[in-house]
Each structure stands twice: as C-alpha cells, then as structure tokens.
C-alpha cells in the first residue's frame, strides 16, 4: 500500500471519529493552492524572461509529474523526473540536439519544476482531484507564452490529464502520436479507470484527440484491439513494422486541428536499448527507429511527454536515464521554434 493510499485510509478513520470533513478539505485545499501557486509563479517568471529576450515562438518547458501509483506492476516511474533532468545535463555529452538546437538557450528549453504529487496525496487527495490538479498545472504553463509543456513522467496515467489540458486550452481536439509497447486503452484495467493501461481510453472517450496513432505495439490483447476499433485508433504493431516503416518515417499530422501531441513510453524501445522500464517486452523499436520517426514527422508539435522510465530497474550505469534524456532533447527540438 502506497503512502498516499495509507493516508486516505487514515483520513477515513478520522472522519468516522467525528473529525470534520470540512477541516480535512480545508487543509487539502491549502496544499493544492500552494502547489499550483508554485507552478504558476515559476511559469510566469520563465515566460517573462523569454518574452523579454524575444525571438521565441515556442519554448519546450519541462514539467515533472512524478506519479507512479497507477502502475499495474511497479511504481518506480514516480522517481524518474529528477533522474531524467540529471541525465539531460550530464557532462558526458553536450547541450546540442541532433538538429543543432542548444538546450542551454532558455528560448529552446526551460523548466518549471515538478507537480508535488506525493505531498498532495499525503493529504488524502483522491485521483479525481489529482487528475484535475495535473491538468490545471499544465494549463498554467500554457498561459505563459511562449511556453509549451514537455512532461516528465511518471507512469502513463498522466497522459490523460495532460492531453485533456492541452486540448481544452487550445480549444479543440489534437492529433496524437503515441509510441509504446502497449496500447494503454483498456476501459478500466483491474477496475482502475485511471490506470496507466487505460489513459488513452479516457482521452478518446473525452473527444480530446481527432487521430491517435499508436506505434511499436507488441503486447496487445483482444480488448486492446477491440477498443482500438471502437475509437478508430490507427494501431501499428511491431510484427508489421518492416512493411509500415516508410509510412511511419514520413508522417504528416495535425492538418485541420489545433496541433500534435507526442507521447513516448520508454518501453516502446526494445529492452536492449532501454532496460530500465517496468514492463520489459522484447521485440521493440531501435532508438534510431524512434528518432527517424520524430525527425521526419511533419507537424506542429504543441506538447509531449516521456513516461514509464523506471530508475529502480536502470541497473546498467544509468543507460535508460540517458535514453529518456535523449528523447527529451529531441522532443525539445521538435517543439521549440
């Protein structure tokens, strides 16, 4: 049982012991307000700086969402954001992306810190409220031009509140490119509507995406395929990747919608390239396969996430942290303008 879940049980006992629910809610609201204020003020500071510098139409802005309790197997992704940041700025490499953009230029990349997920859950906040807090945090970033959210997960359940926020803030549906070993489109995996295996069901039923392309699939059940057909998802499985490669390396998305969102689950990669994930599924994409898809994509990328890196399984000298950081670097180049 996680710490947040323990607190929910504890608060339930307090309520039954005649502790005012209003008192508990008041305390929760103070913590939520403080958490959102921190994100808001950081975003304002970075937005003001970039507007003063000028020359940037879009700056990729890191926002960590260290949530792991909606994982169906291991909860290690909650510890990923600081490890990814450490790897981004590791002295073993330089600050340039492959396309030549410099990450140490704030007009290319900024950072507004993390949503304090554990602190909020420690107050007994349930997942309905927590998802709203994540959405509100993303909107606070988007309110400050030219900031565009680049989310560091966390398990894949965070994609639902993030995509919801992006779609609502832009005023319409978006196209989504989703790279993953799994479709994450169960109706409610193990009874949890917010499971990391159900995030794209929530996105599609909410009408937040016009097109959803899922690439790298190689662990897909009958329900996954049925849900895909139900929502009109374009599912590309690894068993046919050699046939689909040309199409996937020449994608053009986003025409007629508000923009394109990219969601990368690190386990889209073959575990030979990224062993530090909770769900090790052989037969995946190579790292260069992923970069070819990203580099050749023709789209106005408005936001993105990198999720499901599990530092607790990253036992090979931090190799998967560097892989996640490289993905963040190249997504930064795709977002920043």
Automatic annotation (TrEMBL):
Organism domain of life: Eukaryota
Any single GO BP term: putrescine biosynthetic process from arginine, via agmatine
InterPro entries according to UniProt: Ureohydrolase, Ureohydrolase_dom_sf, Ureohydrolase_Mn_BS
Catalytic activity: L-arginine + H2O = urea + L-ornithine
EC class: hydrolase
GO molecular-function term, one example from the UniProt record: arginase activity
Pfam families (alphabetical): Arginase (PF00491)
Chain coiled-coil ranges: none
Residues involved in Mn(2+) binding: 156, 180, 182, 184, 265, 267
Pathway(s) per entry: Nitrogen metabolism; urea cycle; L-ornithine and urea from L-arginine: step 1/1
Record's keyword annotation contains Transmembrane helix: no
Cofactor binding: number and manner: Binds 2 manganese ions per subunit.
Cofactor(s) needed: Mn(2+)
EC numbers on record: 3.5.3.1
Keywords: Arginine metabolism, Hydrolase, Manganese, Metal-binding
Role this protein plays: Catalyzes the hydrolysis of L-arginine to urea and L-ornithine. The latter can be utilized in the urea cycle or as a precursor for the synthesis of both polyamines and proline.
Recorded family membership: Belongs to the arginase family. Agmatinase subfamily.
Protein name: Arginase 1, mitochondrial
Organism: Dendrobium nobile (Orchid)
């Amino acid at each position: 049982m996680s710490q947040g879940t323990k607190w929910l049980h504890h608060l339930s006992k307090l309520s039954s012991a005649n502790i005012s629910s209003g008192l508990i809610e008041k305390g929760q609201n103070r913590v939520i307000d403080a958490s959102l204020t921190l994100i808001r003020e950081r975003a304002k500071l970075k937005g003001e700086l970039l507007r003063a510098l000028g020359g940037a139409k879009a700056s990729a802005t890191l926002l960590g969402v260290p949530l792991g309790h909606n994982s169906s197997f291991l909860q290690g992704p909650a510890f990923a954001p600081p490890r990814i940041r450490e790897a981004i700025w590791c002295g073993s490499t330089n600050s340039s992306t492959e396309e030549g953009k410099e990450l140490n230029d704030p007009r290319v990349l900024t950072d507004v810190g993390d949503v304090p997920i554990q602190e909020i859950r420690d107050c007994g906040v349930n997942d309905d409220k927590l998802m709203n807090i994540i959405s509100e945090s993303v909107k606070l970033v988007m309110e400050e031009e030219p900031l565009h959210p680049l989310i560091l997960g966390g398990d894949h359940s965070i994609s639902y509140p993030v995509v919801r926020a992006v779609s609502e803030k832009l005023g319409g549906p978006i196209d989504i490119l989703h790279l993953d070993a799994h479709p994450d489109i169960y109706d409610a995996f193990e009874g949890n509507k917010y499971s990391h295996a159900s995030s794209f069901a929530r996105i599609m039923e909410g009408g937040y995406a016009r097109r959803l392309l899922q690439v790298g699939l190689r662990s897909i059940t009958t329900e996954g395929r049925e849900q895909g057909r139900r929502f009109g998802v374009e599912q590309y499985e690894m068993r046919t990747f050699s046939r689909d490669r040309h199409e996937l390396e020449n994608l053009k998305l986003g025409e007629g919608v508000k923009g394109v969102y990219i969601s990368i689950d690190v386990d889209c990669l073959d575990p030979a390239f990224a062993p530090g994930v909770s769900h090790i599924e052989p037969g995946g994409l190579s790292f260069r396969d992923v970069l070819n898809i990203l580099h050749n994509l023709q789209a106005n990328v408005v936001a993105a996430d990198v999720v499901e890196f599990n530092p607790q399984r990253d036992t090979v000298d931090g190799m998967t942290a560097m892989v996640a950081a490289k993905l963040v670097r190249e997504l930064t180049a795709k977002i920043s303008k």
